[in-house]
Amino acid sequence: AGDGGGPVPGDGTDPPAPERALFPPTFSLSEIKNKQRRHFMFLRWKQQQRKEKLALKKKRRKEREALGDKAPPKAIPKTIENQRVYDETTVDPNDEEVAFDEATDEFAPYFNRQTVPKILITTSDRPRGRTVRFCEQLATVIPNSHVYYRRGLALKRIIPQCIARDFTDLIVINEDRKIPNGLVLSHLPDGPTAHFRMSSVRLRKEIKRKGKDPTEHVPEVILNNFTTRLGHSIGRMFAALFPHDPQFIGRQVATFHNQRDYIFFRFHRYIFKSEKKVGIQELGPRFTLKLRSLQKGTFDSKFGEYEWIHKRREMDTSRRKFHL
């Protein structure tokens, strides 16, 4: 007999059990003491987060499609780049003072087509195999460049010889523990000289899905996000390494992309698949540069006058402050 007409277990009238949440609001992964179990639950939590995010994204997209032209504009996500602290040296394209300075600086003969780039690439003393291969591959990227392996010869003796032989730039690749870790770029004959820290070097054989070796065509050059006066100087240094008129038939492009004061170099070959789609293949090598100092004149480690030096403790106080 029943006790008041309530549902009897097993008679098919049991109330449905409430769905148990996968992760209760008070759930904390740190409470799980077993490491493997904690890791497994963390992966499940991440998967749940991705599903919720994707569902929300689909819901918003359907709402925008339903509203049509009345849909509100998309919100711009906050990034370190668009939250950047304003730099008073940011260049205005219409600034007459900047235009005058660029017309009279050390790179003016190149941009006025009075000189043709001729580059000497050299290394530190007794370079190892990886640095040697990197220099050889860099020479195939920069037209009219020559590799010279110096054997104990000081840079102060190399520079006058370069000037006498009409070289316009000198590139020195330094290494540490058999790995390239520094680049010195000196514009001849009057400077300036830039010192970079080099990282993330990848040779051609280390790049996945790479294209065939580059041809001898003069590549196009892309300079991205060099917005300050200092950035303009660095960008003009890189531009002066390449001849003026690219040979578009080669479909090769060298890119110097500045992001958060890190300069990423990539070398690609492109092909137009249609009017809207472009396919690219990376040819290599690739590397990343970080400016350490900019020095007036040619290389002089003792008595050189510096225009700019990166001081970490003074300049890296804010993640949103950039100098290039």
Notes on the structure:
Helix content is 26%, strand content 24%. The chain is an alpha+beta fold. The protein has two domains: 35-65; 90-316, Rossmann fold (3-Layer(aba) Sandwich). Strands 1, 2, 3, 4, 5, 6, 7, 8, 9, 10 and 11 form an eleven-stranded mixed β-sheet that branches. The radius of gyration is 29 Å and the shape is globular. The mean pLDDT is 86.
Number of helices: 7
What is the CA-CA span between the terminal residues? 86 Å
Oligomerization state of this entry? single chain
Unreliable residue stretches? none
What global shape is seen? Answer: globular
CATH third-level topology of the largest domain: Rossmann fold
CATH superfamily (homologous) name of the largest domain: Brix domain
List the helices and strands and how they pair.
Blueprint: H1 35-67, H2 96-104, H3 108-111, E1 119-123, H4 129-141, E2 145-148, H5 155-164, E3 169-176, E4 179-187, E5 193-202, E6 220-224, H6 229-239, E7 252-259, E8 262-272, E9 278-282, E10 286-295, E11 306-309, H7 312-315
Parallel strand pairs: 1-2, 1-3, 6-7
Antiparallel strand pairs: 3-4, 4-5, 5-10, 7-8, 8-9, 8-10, 10-11
Subcellular location: Nucleus, Nucleolus
Region (Disordered): 1-23, 48-75
Keywords: Ribosome biogenesis, rRNA processing
